[in-house]
Every structure is written in structure tokens, then in C-alpha cells.
Amino acid sequence: MTENLFGHHISQQFNAELEGLRHRVLAMGGLVEQQIVAAVKALVDGDSELAESVIESDHRVNAFEVSIDEQCTQVLALRQPTASDLRLIVAVIKTIADLERIGDQAEKIARMGLKLITQERPSNEYIEIQHLGERVQQMLGLVLDAFARMDAEAALEVVGKDEKIDLEYEGIMRQLVTFMMEDPRSIKRSLDIMWSIRALERIGDHAKNICEYIIYLVKGKDVRHTTLEQMKKAALGER
Amino acid sequence: MTENLFGHHISQQFNAELEGLRHRVLAMGGLVEQQIVAAVKALVDGDSELAESVIESDHRVNAFEVSIDEQCTQVLALRQPTASDLRLIVAVIKTIADLERIGDQAEKIARMGLKLITQERPSNEYIEIQHLGERVQQMLGLVLDAFARMDAEAALEVVGKDEKIDLEYEGIMRQLVTFMMEDPRSIKRSLDIMWSIRALERIGDHAKNICEYIIYLVKGKDVRHTTLEQMKKAALGER
């Protein structure tokens, strides 16, 4: 079914346009994924050059957003799509807004990395950031796969992962508070770690938003603000 | 010019639909504004009942988003708008996403309010939250006015306000860090205050996003990720 979702156009040209649009979203997603990996690595390794390059590259993410957005408006105006084509365009408009914000969070992590270089390294070598960063990056990778394959079921699975990330986030936060109270000299550093952990948690939220757009796109059902149960029904049910 | 921006349709019915859509966005904006005011008041006064009612009302904000979004998709499918009508629809889709996230931040502030009730009140009676809350609420009010009047110039003015909010935010944060280091027993409370201040700052960012959509809507120029100078040129220039 997935192969045929956009295979019903008389206009080969229009098909190619939609396909091109999807590829550009995936290219933007790939760039954003790289930004997360590089930002986390820069922070954990204390690599200021890498951190600077992440900050410097954010404009590329922004340029993607503006240009894909413009392309969507053009398709809407010139092709006047309906049904699943229209849903694709709306889903793309929303998806790239979340991808752009994920890029902002990666930039924030890189900036925290630069600040943390000036502080004493913690004895755990930022293992919590490393770990949560890997989870979040993996989650985004799965979301992009689900988008590429227009796979609502896969998108639904990723939503479940966000709940685990939230739990892990809460745990790390509690630990950091305890640490701050035990050793007030570590407050500044702990706060910078907190903001980084927070940014990773926000990336998970954005990735979850994209999952909801994929379910909407494939199934035609808006599952935002619903329970996981309701989402399951929408993602696994027939259109 | 503003009166005529959508006054060129042959179809009176279509005009009425677009007008209705704009009114619903403003109604959603009004609800979100109330949520901010109530959340800040609940936190500052330690009013748990009010805080609960903010948390409980968030579903109304969400319902607005889903329903306006659906209406936009319907207009796109059935009316196949172009030019400024199409820009209105795209701007509405983006605006309600930001309004919904402002609602989430208000809910977050209410939740922090509930946590803070269990802590000793600070000697400054949360004056910083009160103050920043008023600024942010005023900013959102101006954004909604600019949206109602389709006034790019007014939207531009509000963007300038966000920079002031960011500066104030930085100042409060620095103060809180100092306070935490001086009195580690206040760490938990200070962190809850930080998250609330952070939520207010995020609301300012979302309000700024909406300003950018208004400029795009009225002037047809995408001013995201540009400098304030470039925005000025777009907002004050002719189409």
C-alpha cells in the first residue's frame, strides 16, 4: 500500500515533485541528525572546534526549512493537491518546523559544550549526556525511516520510545539536583548539564510530533493530544 | 489596504469562511492569553485551585488547534486558495501550532506553581515571575492585535520586545544562580523558579514566531532567520 500512496497521478511531473519534496525533507532530517551527533560529541569530548562548526552549520538547517516551505506553498498554489497529496504537503510543512527546532536544540547543546569546556570535567565524563544523546539520535533516525517508508506502524513504535526518554530525563534531573545540593561548587556546571539534557528531551518531543504527522499523513487521522491507545488504533487501523 | 486584503473574492461564502477562520485563531489566542495570566497568578499567589484549572483547561487549547487545523485542510482541499488567501491558511496552520505550545508552557508554569506551594515562599514574593509574566502576556496581546489587523508594522514592533524579554531572562537567570550558590537549601525552589522563567521566555519566542508569520502573510516575504534590519525592510516595504 505504501508504494501506491502517491502513485495515482496522471501527471508524472507532479509525482516527481512530491518525490523530490520528500527527499529534501529526508536530507534536512539527515543534516539535523548529524548536528545532534556532532553537538553531543563536541560536549562530551570538550571539542570546541566541533562545537563551533555545529553552531556555524545551523544556518544550513534554517535555509532548508525556508526553501522547503516555499516549495510547499508553490505546490499548493500551482497543483492544488487534495486527499493524500494535500496531507503530505501539510505534514511536510509541520515536519520541517520541528526539524528546524531540533536543529536549534543541537546548537544549544553545542553552546553548552563551549561553556562546559571552561569548567572542571565531572568524574562521570558526561556519561548521562552521551547516553541520552545516543537514544535521541536513534529515535530521530527511526522517525526519518518511518517518514521515508510512510510507515504509520513504525512511527507509532517510536512514540513509545519518547516515553522512555522522558523517564530517563526525569531520573537524570533528580540526580543532578542531589549532586548540586551535595556540592554547591558544582552548581554552574550542573546547570549547564541540565540545559543540555533538557535540550535532548525536547528533541525527543519534536521527534514524537513528527511521528504524529506521519500517522496523520498515512492514515488521515489527527492523533495529536490523544492517548497512546487511541494512536495505536489510528496507526494500525484501516483508512 | 488591510481591509481589502481578503476583499477580492467573488464568493461571499469563501470570504466568510476566511473571516471565520481568523476569528477562531483570535479566540484560541485569547484563551491562551488567559491561560498565561491564570498560570502566573496561580504561581505567585500559591493558588492550587487556579493552577489545577489551568492544567485542566489545556485540553481546550489542544481541541482548538486540532479543529482549526482540520478547517484549514478543508479550505485547502475545497477552495484551493492562491496568493494571499493561501498565505493566510499557511500562516494560520503555523500560528496555531505556536499558540498550542504557548498553552503547554502555561500549563508547565501552573505545574511549577503546584510544586512551589510545598516550598517556603521567597522573600521577593516571586516578583521576577510576576514581572516577566506581565511582559510576556502584553507581548502576546500585541501579537494577537497585529494578527487581527493584519498589521506587519505592529508585528515588527513586537519582535523588538522579544529581545528585551531575552535580556531580562538572562538577568534573572544569573541572579538565581548566585542565589543558589549562596544558599544551597534554596536549590530546589530556585530550579522550579528557573523552569517557570524559562517557560515565559519560550512564550516570548513563540510570540515572535507568530509575528514572523504575520509579516509573511501581509508582505509575502519569509523573514524567519533574518536580522531585525532585514525584517524591517520586509515589514515596512511595499509588496
Largest β-sheet summary of chain A: none
Structural class of chain A: mainly alpha
- Most extensive interface: pair and counts? A-B, 30 and 30 residues
Uncertain regions of chain A: pLDDT < 50 for 5+ in a row? none
The Rg value of chain A, from CA coordinates, equals 20 Å
**Alpha carbon gap, first and last residue of chain A:** 11 Å
Give the total of domains of chain A: 1
Please give the CATH architecture of chain A: Up-down Bundle
Considering DSSP H and I runs of 4 or more, what fraction of the residues of chain A is helical?
A: over 70%
Overall pLDDT confidence of chain A:
93
- Name given to the CATH homologous superfamily of chain A: Phosphate transport system protein phou homolog 2, domain 2
Label the overall shape of chain A: globular
Write the element-wise H/E pattern of chain A from the N-terminal end onward.
HHHHHHH
Q: What's the CATH C level of chain A?
A: Mainly Alpha
| Total strands of chain A | 0
Question: CATH topology of chain A, which one?
Answer: Methane Monooxygenase Hydroxylase, Chain G, domain 1
User: Strand portion of chain A, in percent?
Assistant: under 5%
